[in-house]
Specification:
The chain has eight helices and two strands; from the N terminus they run H-H-H-H-E-E-H-H-H-H. By secondary structure, it is mostly helical. It folds into two domains: about 90 residues, Orthogonal Bundle (Rna Polymerase Sigma Factor, Chain: A); about 70 residues, Arc Repressor Mutant, subunit A, CATH 1.10.10. It has a two-stranded antiparallel sheet. Keywords: Sigma factor, Transcription, Transcription regulation. It comes from Winogradskyella marincola. It holds the Pfam family Sigma70_r2. Belongs to the sigma-70 factor family. ECF subfamily.
């Protein structure tokens, strides 16, 4: 399959084309983010978000540009947004030129927050049970057992890219279930 053909088919919502594009460009985007973040987990998370966003917005792709360049641009913007969010949580304030201190926000949960979290977790678990068993399994392994993609791949005896795509699809389906409710 050629890239232009895969892009056309992906715009028609062809899952095989999505997998082809993911397999073709995964290493490029991941390597780019690994150089930027110097952290494998962050690079992997941003790469997954990149493909998720790209596949959601594939209709906006302009064929006058290289697909790889489009993906890298999306990836770069996601990373910039994450860095901005991190900077907002810790505000750097200066009393005068010599005395600099960090104003750290207290994020510890209140008793009310704990009750709300428990209720939300129970609802989330009910929503997860609405997914097909193989999607439930991959979400459980990644987010509740906190396994790496490699460990999940070994557990399920599937290639890592398949695990990533399955997890991406499971998250999209779960988001759809949550927003419907």
């Amino acid at each position: 399959m050629e890239i232009t053909d895969a892009i056309y088919r992906a715009k028609q919502n062809d899952q095989i084309a999505f997998n082809f594009l993911l397999d073709t460009f995964w290493n490029d985007v991941y390597s780019f983010q690994l150089m930027r973040t110097q952290n494998e987990n962050d690079a992997e998370d941003i790469t997954i978000q990149t493909f998720s966003k790209a596949f959601d917005k594939i209709d906006t792709y302009d064929e006058n540009y290289k697909f790889k360049t489009w993906l890298i641009t999306i990836s770069k913007n996601i990373h910039i947004d994450l860095v901005r969010k991190q900077k907002k949580s810790i505000q750097n304030t200066s009393k005068d030129n010599e005395d600099i201190y960090l104003d750290i926000v207290d994020d510890s949960p209140t008793p009310e927050d704990k009750i709300i979290t428990e209720q939300n977790l129970a609802k989330l678990l009910r929503d997860i049970k609405k997914l097909k068993p193989h999607y439930q399994q991959v979400i459980n392994l990644r987010y509740f057992q906190e396994l790496s993609y490699k460990e999940i791949s070994e557990e399920l005896n599937e290639p890592i890219n398949n695990v990533k795509v399955k997890l991406l699809r499971a998250k999209k389906l779960l988001a759809a279930i949550i927003t419907k409710a």
